[in-house]
Specification:
This protein has 203 residues and is α/β, with parallel strands linked by helices. 51% of the residues lie in helices and 13% in strands. The protein is built from 10 helices and 6 strands; from the N terminus they run βαβαβαβαβαβααααα. A 6-stranded parallel beta sheet has the order 2-1-3-4-5-6, with helices on both faces. Strand 1, helix 1 and strand 2 form a beta-alpha-beta unit.
């Protein structure tokens, strides 16, 4: 049984998503109130808007450590999708998704798999295929990610970075993951080295 917590942009959307999933015999939908008493859900299904640089941060914060996050968004571009995956999101899907696709994605995400909608696959893969770390545009780092990167270069741990920037440890982890993904780095040290070579940070 896959337990799902829904975070929608409107009550109408929430009702529609709940109706779609409740018809699946192996999926249980819980509210935020009941989720607190029942423990963490397997999946947090969240609608997000495009206004924020990182609209997935709130769903990831809500998910805690054990829940997979599935995002529903209107026409996310490949770079946005990549950043979401690098931050820990398991699936990025269009809000117009069909019931059978949504149910399949929720099950897959709950099992720990990454999910990309077929409509987005063609545009997503060429955006990253064959790129070396030095090929990725510097502009992809957001101002907040640059702030975190500079403090990474100073050798600060996540807790200290969080304290200096006035954000949570959890949010710092998301930014670090996004930075590693954008720079094509396997570690914090490698990310800093790449950033130094590109002139993103001074040492």
């Amino acid at each position: 049984m896959t337990v799902v917590l829904i975070r929608a942009l409107s009550p109408l959307s929430a009702t529609g998503l709940e109706r779609m999933l409740r018809s699946e015999p192996d999926i249980t939908v819980v509210s935020e109130d009941s989720a607190e008493s029942a423990g963490e859900p397997d999946v947090v299904l969240a609608e997000v808007g495009p206004a924020d640089d990182s609209p997935w941060e709130a769903p990831l914060e809500l998910s805690g450590r054990g829940s997979a996050v599935v995002l529903l968004a209107d026409d996310p571009h490949p770079g946005w999708t990549w950043d979401a995956f690098a931050s820990g999101v398991k699936a990025v899907l269009p809000r117009r998704i069909r019931q059978e696709e949504l149910a399949a994605a929720v099950r897959a995400a709950g099992a720990g798999l990454l999910v990309i909608h077929p409509e987005d696959l063609e545009s997503f893969l060429p955006a990253r295929a064959g790129l070396s770390p030095s090929d990725v545009p510097q502009e992809e780092l957001t101002p907040r990610e640059r702030d975190v990167l500079r403090r990474m270069a100073d050798g600060l741990p996540n807790k200290e970075i969080a304290s200096r920037l006035g954000i949570s440890d959890h949010t710092v982890k998301f930014h670090v993951a996004a930075i590693l993904g954008k720079l094509g780095a396997m570690s914090r040290t490698e990310a800093v080295m790449i950033a130094v070579r590109r002139g993103l940070v001074m040492v």
